[in-house]
User: Fold this.
Amino acid sequence: MNSFISILVVLTLSFALATVTMADEPQPPDQTTGETTVQVEQEPTATPEEPTAAPEEPTATPEQPTAAPEEPTATPEQPTAAPEEPTATPEQPTAAPEEPTATPEEPTAAPEEPTATPEEPTATPEEPTATPEEPTAAPEEPTATPEQPTATPEQPTATPEQPTAAPEEPSMTEETPVAESADIGAGAAPSSYTSCFQLANLSSSTAYINIGYYSQTAGLVANPSDTIGGNSSKTYCPLSAVSSGFNGSVVVSSSQPLAAIANIAGDPSFSGFMASYTGFSGGSSSAWLPLLMKNNYGYSTWFNVQNVGSTNANISITYSDGKTASATIAPGRAKSFNQLSEDHANGWVGAGRVTATGADIAATVVEVGAIVPQLFAYNGFTSATTNPVMPLVQANNYGYFTGIQIQNTGSSSTNVTVTYTPAAAGTTCTETKSIPAGQSRTFALYAFSNLFGADPYPGTNNCNKTARFVGSARVTGNSASQGLVAIVNQVHNGLGKGAAYGSFDPSKATSKVVMPLIADRNYGYYTGFNIQNVGSVSTNVTCTFSGSSRTVGSVSLAPGQALNRVQGPYSGPEWINLGAGYVGSGTCIATGGGKIVGVVNYVSDTGGDTLMVYEGVNQ
Assistant:
């Protein structure tokens, strides 16, 4: 069976995005067929070599920083002590608790003995941000985290329904700011990036693979071969096949179906800025980018476009402010576009569309926070749906907030209604806004809080602005039936954590979701995952984990409802103990023809941007 995956990988001294694409020139030992490409940018934002330190009181993400609730990001349903003095950020500062996020009944502190992981644990920040209620299973080698780090929308997004449990001793206090360095100036961002990626073999047979590394300027510079055992994974960290300073993309050819996750870290290493995204299994003639920014309260974006075909791709980019760009990209290679260096107005927040002729493309966007050191990453959308779904939404959740950016890919304005369904906390509510053709609008952030000031594009909603909410969301109204795409940003500015994931098309959902990376107290990191029922009838969901006898028993989910689980040593409906040091994978299956999708958070409770998230793989 052929599989093509493209991954954007950021390497030292370069910007990199990972996209997985398919090609027809694999050269594995026996029979291979796919290619995975990784794009790397060389337009790093001029920032000091040392990551910018987050002020003692982190500011909220883009246009509206999220205020952290009085109680820091507690884990699942049982949050812990709230900060005494939240810090205000731009229009909507997020109050950072004086003490790191409290853990549920028992903080998720990892045992004194580090989890048995490879010599080099997955390149993740020292402390990942809260993971979804149920983190996804980690492959044998935890290094590569989800693909999807995404840029933060105008309104920072909250972390998963169940923020990661904090260690016994809060990782951040008023005296211990998120970052070590001080005096962070506007525009400060990583001056270099490093990437790692992980490949998971989704079949029971050995996968023979070729990994092609394409420099943006020199083309193919390395093409090593390797094998991955059946139902196992392999991490590539560091990228030993290329030299330091490599700026490009990766194309993986495989004889078996694969899933790929890429991690991006800002300088000087995996400690200040972290993001993840997943590889592509193919390309398209167009890609939609719901959230782009230029110095929006310290947040800006850059993106890579990769040619996944065998001939030159002529690309055109149209931004929602009327600006345009174009380029010609050779096969396998990628090109970077940095909004800071483009002719957009300072403070601009908008969207974009990339179209190509001659060959298909894939695109990945990285959002960079210069005031509070954060990275978000998300993949451009190659297709749209009239009713996208989002498995994890949080608000007033012990410092975590969520912002959903929905883009109208159609030719007519449409009124969009989003229904929010609680899982761990909150009540059902709806929000409606009008989205002009080609534009994007922010949902959830203003509907659930008054902390971010006035909504620049107000709509109507009946959501509780002060109550804690942890659940899921789905579009239930689209007056003109236009195609929609969306990204979800999770943020906790008080702890300096942020991550993003892309919405799902329910028509592509299946009864099985594979989570390539699940971890429990792995060098301080753990996962949490959310599995959402996107079908029209109730379904029962069960989850199993590689190398473990522990399972999530049959759980009934109503349409739109999500299942939340966090990996850790505590008791309670939201926890599952897989053992200290566990690193593996997970699989969730719906019965009775149910359709599900899922996301996984990979996080550490220490301060800093140690939160990453990726989308589960439907099979």
Summary: The chain has a mean pLDDT of 75. The CA atoms of residues 469 and 619 lie 30 Å apart. The domain at 506-618 is CATH 2.60.290.11 (Hypothetical Protein Tm1070; Chain: A).
